[in-house]
Amino acid sequence: MKPRWIIKEVLTESFLGVAIVNSIGFLAILALFETGIHLSSLAAGLELVGTSRVIHPTNQWQRCDHG
Length: 67
Prior knowledge:
Elements lengths: L2 H33 L1 E2 L4 H7 L4 E2 L12
Antiparallel strand pairs: 1-2
């Protein structure tokens, strides 16, 4: 097998893998917009930091300034 074909195959598989994984991640986030992530088993610790038992993903990027 020629080295050119090996490189082409590796790049093709990489791009397809990235596309498939990104699609699965996008679908998971869409599903979590409705139901949220239930963290009731961690409720005692979450109350200490002021977080609710169910968290929902957001579509806004927030910048965290430390200082």
